[in-house]
Amino acid sequence: MAGDKRLQKIFDSLLAAYGTRHWWPGETPLEVMVGAVLTQNTSWKNVEKAISSMKRQGAMSLPALAAMEEKGLAEIIRSAGFYNVKARRLKNLIHFIGEKFDGKIESMAEEGLPGLRDLLLGINGLGPETADSILLYALQKPVFVVDAYTKRFLTNHGLYCKSTDYHEIQRYFQERLAPDTYLYNEFHALIVVLCQTYCRKQPLCDQCPLGSDLDGKEARNRRPSQGRPPRNK
Length: 233
Prior knowledge:
Blueprint: H1 3-18, H2 29-38, H3 44-56, H4 62-67, H5 70-76, H6 83-101, H7 105-109, H8 113-121, H9 128-138, H10 148-156, H11 166-176, H12 181-197
């Protein structure tokens, strides 16, 4: 099966199995941006605590974040871990929005994708995954987000094992899928839930909704021994 058709079939199977994921969780584009920075090297549960703290302290707005001292912000987001570093990165992002787009996320969203991505990557502390999460989930730009789950999924299914380079993996998806924000959003979210349930470091392929995909030539020899299904929580 051609790579693009196989990816589309995988997406359709995952969507049928798990449904729409409604990702990224956030009430506003700013909240999504904040979450993208805070989720670096921590669990989403810790990010939710930090975001709730920011809301209680009246810190979830561009003017409030711009006026707040870095040290004070660090204390508010302490539950997210690495809070001093993340406070600095948030302040860098907020300063960027203020300087380049007059503090208006709407103006930021009107910027073309390639140029805006380069600008975001120029912000100290923002790597490709964080920048692309902001572009896709907060600004509705069609760019595929790559993370550790994406790499594991590709390896387990024998789809792409040539490189672990972020941009090469991203290119693999974007060359085979239409540049569609909804598709990129849902596909990445579905890969995350798949890897959290079945496509683990020790995969549970016999119970996976993509079990039939492993019958393909690309992954026939990768089917592991039968494992126990995950418990329902």
